[in-house]
Specification:
The protein is an alpha/beta fold and 1024 residues long. 49% of the residues lie in helices and 14% in strands. The two termini are 78 Å apart. Iron/sulfur cluster binds next to α29 and α37.
């Protein structure tokens, strides 16, 4: 007899089956409970307690695969374990590779395409689930008209199927995927189920092969009872469509073998759940159910709708609600979290759980491909066959397994980014380019970066180079595997992973430790599998990488719950839970949960429809899949006995909008519920409001420096502080470093021009201190030789390999330098002022240096002023020596007197003061100016801006041209006025110094302040 027991979720179907099983056991009748494989663990855990003590004598819980093994054990037959997804992927990939030249439709895309591999596997598992063989596809292809595009597709599928099967049988003797077919054949020969009863629970549908086995069971067993989750066997509700189909198919088989069919209908046990949950169970997908406009019917305490901004916020919301439930007396084990596909939450939800110390079990398995070892192997292989792209080399380093410390890794990355290192440049024996970019000066930090970069390069590249030599020299898969194994041995991966596991264990991360410890043997197993499965295959390193990547991508590291009382987290289609008091559903967004149905295989919906005309029926048509999607939601929401929380998000991570799914909106409508925006949002805004209130005080209170401190300031530091105290604080006290780049930048113009002018004029300066200026016609030749020296110092790259942008920059700068040199030589050749020093450092002890300039503050602190003067010219007249300081600027720079008192522009006055202070009795101020190139209407002209002493003889010494073309734009200042400017400069410096020492660090954004601020990307007030 076939007994069909139907009833909605929670109506007691399993209890009824168990009651009958108990009675059978008491009567000494042999009986089986057949459940889906994912359900077996829970059934074996929970059911024996509910059965009589002698259950073990008569009763067995089985699933289809286990049953096949039992049958083969008893009657003989191959009991191959099922092939892992990874192996199936590898065999399918190799099938596609070898059949590609013969394929009519997929010849081009089949070769070396990982996506095609998984599409084909999905298609064949769908075809096999529907009992459709390659032979049948070929027969139908013969019948299709010539012009039908489906014809070639079916021929291809038939050929691929045959080749794949042949490869599988060669490797495993027989295809383990056929074991249900072989079991059915065995059952036709032997009465395995004679005198027994079979109870079938928790299935919604069966594959064609499973139906074959069920038919044998129905023919042999005294009773077959199947529980089906549906309100009625003739249900009109969309989510029970699949179950209804299953019932019909079972009835059809029973009719064929002349079996009596008995139907039992169960009803929901309303008393066990609250009204809201009962209503949801009954009407969730009953679209014609009347919506009662009653504001009191909502289950405000038991059902919650939570709206979050994105998945990260959603994960926080889930965890905080779990903690709230625990505070109310729930155990973790009574709570479950379900997503349509939990993979989308991996690394987000589990991270949030760990952050808050919530024990959880992610029922999905850990993907091997997410592990650093996987990334190391793939990055190394890609680095080798793509000839060392920076991305792969860096990703290899970041795995933490390449033998490079975290610190060296980040400095290596910084250096590679600065100099855009890629390809064969990684194989250089040593790098010497300046980490500070295109400048001849190397800071201490730059030295540190350079050393670390070279250290990391030698550690990483030598093993990679060896791997490259060995793997490229070998054609066979096995020798490639050996080369890879040797690479891993050189890196001492096994030892590294053991150490890592030990650290994880000590930190109490048992699950991670147990996974880490298994990684190496898993990898070795994978390499051995490839050698075993494709022993004679020859392939390029790129193909080998694809093969490895397919196996990695399909390998899971099974993990078991590491604690009894934990929140179960899983995917709606596979997760099985029982005794759940509170269920939280996440990702209830349109298209996600329930998932939108689309053609995602090789055969489209239309083609399946066409094939049905040739007697190939698909149980996986769109309507069925849609029904399944609705059922997954139904099953999840009805598992909760007390609380149901539904979460949706309004935005993707990239900010694009999302809308709530039908399931979420149905519950909202049915219960008349208000959704709640996740509280963290308010908490956060309250926090940030509090922060901004406090901000006014905290920003001005960076730790003050004690009285008696020594503060070193320069013109640029003072200007940074005047523009924005926080800019000064972050750059000079926190020492946040702006990302350097060897690509041309504004700062590089200055470095280049300073170098060229200094070296050019040094060549013209005679030993006796006089100038021997070159002829105008010689300027270009001299400048070019100076530029050559500059390039070899800052950018030791062969011009042939030089970045296009860099070449363009130097061409432009050369032009500009020559233009300014012409102007400078013209000026110097008619002036009585003669260059006396270049790049003179204030406070340096060398002969070219100037004495330091220090100012005392009221609290006893001292400010020492630093700086480097581009050029100092002198002119002697009677007893006095007049000084002119010159500062080169690569862009427009107008000097304003008022900027001295504010501290915005003290440079010229500070420099003048520094030179005069070196000998106040002899030296007198003559002039101070900026020399810069100005662009106007596409024309470049050389300009000067600054001050000049209001003294005719000095002015004449400076500029003897009839129209005073070199001094006419300079601001005339008397000796007294220059002294006043110096006092203004000193007072600006002391005022800024006192504010810095007091800890002032507020943000004062403005266009000028923020434009070149090194922390602007991370500053909430930046003017962008
Ligand atoms: S970005 Fe603007 S406001 Fe922010 S620290 Fe820099 S200069 Fe100040």
């Amino acid at each position: 007899m076939l007994k069909l027991i139907c009833g909605p979720s929670g109506s007691g179907k399993t209890d009824l089956l168990l009651k009958q099983i108990s009675s059978d056991i008491q009567n000494g009748i042999r009986c089986f409970l057949l459940v889906p494989e994912q359900q077996a663990y829970i059934s074996e855990r929970d059911i024996p307690q509910k059965l009589p003590p002698n259950a073990g004598l008569y009763f067995e819980i089985v699933h289809f695969s286990g049953l096949a093994e039992d049958v083969f054990r008893k009657y003989g037959g191959v009991t191959n374990a099922s092939i892992s997804h990874g192996i199936r992927s590898l065999l399918m990939w190799d099938t596609l590779r070898s059949t590609a030249p013969l394929l009519k439709q997929y010849g081009k895309s089949a070769k070396n395409d990982g996506t095609m591999t998984s599409l084909m596997l999905n298609t064949f598992s769908e075809l096999h689930a529907n009992g459709i063989t390659g032979e049948r596809l070929e027969e139908v292809a013969e019948l299709l008209p010539l012009e039908s595009p489906l014809k070639n597709k079916l021929y291809d599928l038939a050929l691929i199927d045959a080749t794949y099967r042949q490869k599988t049988e060669e490797a495993f003797g027989s295809d383990p995927e056929d074991r249900l077919l072989r079991m059915a054949q065995k059952l036709q020969e032997h009465d395995y189920f004679e005198n027994s009863r079979v109870y079938i629970d928790s299935f919604t549908s069966f594959t064609a092969r499973e139906f074959d086995v069920l038919q044998c069971i129905m023919e042999q067993a005294d009773l077959v009872a199947v529980s089906l989750c549906a309100d009625d066997l003739y249900s009109s509700l969309p989510h029970f469509e699949t179950v209804k189909e299953t019932a019909n198919r079972l009835k059809k088989i029973a009719d064929q073998i002349g079996l009596r069919v008995e139907k039992t209908k169960l009803f929901p046990k309303s008393a066990e759940k609250n009204d809201s949950l009962n209503l949801i169970e009954r009407d969730l997908w009953r679209f014609d159910a009347p919506i009662v406009p009653d504001s009191n019917r909502g289950g405000r305490d038991t059902v919650k709708l939570i709206k979050c901004r994105n998945v990260y916020e959603e994960a926080e919301a889930v965890v905080l609600n779990v903690l709230d439930l625990v505070q109310q007396g729930y155990r973790y084990g009574e709570i479950a979290v379900v997503a349509r596909d939990i993979e989308g939450y991996r690394g987000i939800l589990d991270a949030a759980m760990e952050r808050y110390g919530v024990p959880y079990f992610l029922s999905a398995r850990t993907d091997f491909s997410s592990k650093p070892l996987f990334r190391l192997v793939l990055s190394a292989l890609r680095a080798v066959y793509k000839h060392y792209p920076a991305q792969e080399v860096l990703s290899l380093l970041k795995t933490g397994l390449a033998g490079v410390s975290l610190q060296d890794c980040s400095l290596f990355e910084e250096y590679c980014e600065t100099w855009h290192i890629s390809g064969s440049r990684f194989l250089d024996t040593a790098w010497s380019m300046n980490p500070d970019g295109l400048t001849t000066e190397k800071s201490e930090r730059a030295m540190e970066i350079l050393e670390a970069a070279n250290r990391a390069r030698s550690v990483v590249m030598e093993p990679l180079r060896l791997l490259s030599d060995e793997i490229n020299a070998s054609r066979s898969v096995c020798s490639k595997c050996e080369a890879l194994y040797r690479y891993l041995t050189r890196l001492q991966i096994s030892e590294q992973l053991s150490n890592r596991a030990e650290t994880e264990l000590k930190a109490g991360r048992r699950r991670e430790a147990s996974e880490t410890v298994r990684l190496y043997s898993l990898l070795c197993e994978i390499l051995a599998q490839i050698c075993r499965l494709l022993p004679d295959a020859e392939m390029s390193t790129e193909e080998f990488t694809t093969a490895i990547s397919l196996l990695f991508g399909s390998t899971d590291i099974g993990s078991v719950p590491n604690t009894h009382d934990c929140v179960t987290v899983g995917s709606a289609s596979t997760m099985r839970v029982e005794k759940i008091r509170a269920m939280l559903l996440v990702g209830l967004c349109e298209g996600e949960f329930p998932r939108a149905i689309s053609d995602d295989g090789i055969l489209t919906e239309k083609e399946k429809e066409l094939l049905e005309g040739y007697d190939l029926s698909f149980a996986s048509r769109e309507s069925v899949r849609y029904s399944e999607e609705l059922f997954y939601v139904y099953r999840a929401v009805t598992k909760a006995t007390e609380r149901l929380y539904l979460c949706t998000v309004t935005n993707e991570i990239d900010g694009s909008a999302r809308s709530a799914s039908l399931a979420y909106n149905r519950v909202k409508l049915l219960l008349g519920l208000e959704e709640e925006a996740f509280q963290l949002r308010q908490i956060r805004s309250a926090l940030s409001a509090a922060e901004s209130k406090e901000g006014a005080e905290t920003e001005t209170s960076a730790i003050p420096m004690p009285a008696g401190s020594t503060l070193r300031l320069s013109q640029s530091k003072i200007q940074a502080f005047v523009l924005c105290p926080y800019r000064y604080y972050s750059s000079y006290r926190l020492q946040l470093r702006e990302k350097k780049d060897s690509a041309p930048s504004y700062a590089d113009d200055g470095n280049f021009l300073h170098y060229v002018f200094e070296k050019f004029l040094l060549q013209a300066l005679c030993e006796d201190g006089t100038l021997s200026l070159p002829d105008m016609s010689e300027i270009e030749t001299i400048a070019d030789s100076v530029i050559k020296g500059y390039l070899s110092a800052v950018c030791p790259i062969d011009p042939g390999e030089m970045d296009g942008k860099l070449l363009h920059l130097y061409t432009r700068l050369r032009k500009l330098a020559i233009l300014i040199l012409h102007d400078m030589i013209a000026e110097l050749s008619q002036s009585l002022f003669v260059p006396n020093g270049f790049e003179r450092v204030i406070g340096a002890s060398d002969p070219n240096g100037l004495p330091s300039v220090s100012l005392s503050l009221r609290d006893g602190s001292v400010v020492i002023l630093n700086g480097k003067i581009d050029r100092v010219d002198l002119f002697q007249s009677n007893e006095r020596i007049y000084v002119r300081v010159v500062d080169y600027k690569s862009g427009e720079h107008r000097f304003k007197l008022e900027d001295v008192a504010s501290g915005m522009d003290i440079q010229l006055i500070l420099y003048l003061f520094a030179v005069l202070s070196s000998n106040p009795h002899k030296l007198a101020a003559g002039a101070a100016h900026f020399l810069y190139a100005d662009q106007e209407n596409g024309k470049t002209s050389i300009k000067r801006s600054g001050i000049v002493l209001e003294d005719e003889s000095v002015k004449q010494a400076l500029d003897s041209t009839p129209n005073k073309e070199f001094t006419k734009k300079l601001l005339p200042q008397t000796e007294e006025e220059i002294k006043t400017r110096i006092e203004e400069m000193k007072s600006a410096v002391t005022s800024v110094a006192e504010r810095i020492l007091a800890g002032e660090a507020k943000k004062t954004p403005s266009e000028d302040a923020c434009r070149y601020c090194p922390v602007r990307d991370n500053c909430d007030k930046a003017v962008k």
